Amino acid sequence: MNHRPATFALALIASSVTVAEAQQRPPIRQLGAVTAKATETFTNVAGIRALANGSVLVNDISGRRVLLFEPQLGKFTIVADSTSATANAYGGRVGALIAYRGDSSIFVDPSSVSMLVIDPSGKVARVAAIPRAEDAGTIGSGFGNTAFDASGRLVYRAMPRMQFTGRPARPGGAGPAGFQMPEPPDSAFVLRVDLMTRKVDTVGVIRTPKIKLEAKTDDRGNMSITSLINPLPVVDDWAVTSDGAIAFVRGRDYHVDWVNPDGSKGTSSKIPFDWQRMSDEDKVAFIDSVKAARERMGANAPVPATGAAPGPGGAGAGGSPQVQIFVGPGGPGGGPGGGNVRVGAGPGGAQLNFVPASELPDYKPPFFAGSTRADTDGNLWIRTIATTAVAGGPVYDVINRKGELIDRVQIPAGRTIIGFGPAGAVWLVNRDGTTVTLEKASVR
After folding, report:
1. For a tag on the chain, would you pick the N or C end, based on fewer CB atoms within 10 A?
2. Contacts of 55 (CB under 8 A, 6+ apart)
3. What does pTM read for this prediction?
4. How far apart are CA 30 and CA 192, in angstroms?
């Protein structure tokens, strides 16, 4: 058996450890004071759009509405919702809120395959078609840090596509005849599209959590396929900076690859990090702690999103979502002699299955997917995974356009940074059980 790839990967990590030890990391400081809190509550906030005058648009995906809050968060107006309160329908599916030119914004409505252009006052100035109808669900999902680059092209992450092995299942072990086991991908493309020409190209590739599928067949020939969650995946992340560059944050050795506004590409040095090696006992303990934490949360335990960081959307521990597929005798397709397919994901608090502890990485990764935010000064803020005990809330590494670690900021417990605004404003979501509130703080 060839062990060179594994040996090489460990060498990369060891190199990163050496770099981390050689470079001095900035001391952790506290985020500035909270300056405003909204009394309106939410269940799930997918994103915000801060405006120059201090107001903020909020995408409330659970309530299916877009709200415009005044600077002190005391009052708001409804920009779009799912009732007759406004002339602008939110739509029957989750939409995405994206910063556009100047202080205008775009709300993507996949249901109508359209984009609402919202002016700074919260009025819908015009409605445009989504440049590629086939990507309406992808762009509108808010999957990742969808944004515009320096040339005005829309940058978004493509949804992963299931591949099939081409090997039909066999009776007695792998399910009904004719069923092909799907092969989940472990990477995803980041695309960009020109709104005028509708030309699309691939700007980069990111590593995503590998979903492991486990198939079982009962004595009646019914097959169930259950995904196994990796609560500690090694992944990449990405964001578009304020100057329009596209940053790819690599989790394997923690560095940033850049696609600059002029089209050139570059790679920054490795970011110093306190790499923590995980022994076999550590891996078992980590799996046990995740299971115990979910049991304590009970019905409030969120269903993990694909590689998402714990945050405003209620994402779990950064693993893949649990998906169960049930296939009756004869395989999918129904009809006489055919089976039925049922796909489901357990609600919050449902029993989840995890990969064996031996499949966790040998070094605790620096971040989960969905952990990166870009501020208004061109910096990246990356919510890191704690490798040593740090009292209080999560700590963010602040990376400048050179890929250098320039600051480490701790935010209050229970909070996650959801966006940034002018004059050093930092927007937070505060989750308390199933309730989410919005807060504004100063960066210092």
Report:
1. N
2. 68, 69, 70, 71, 120
3. 0.83
4. 36
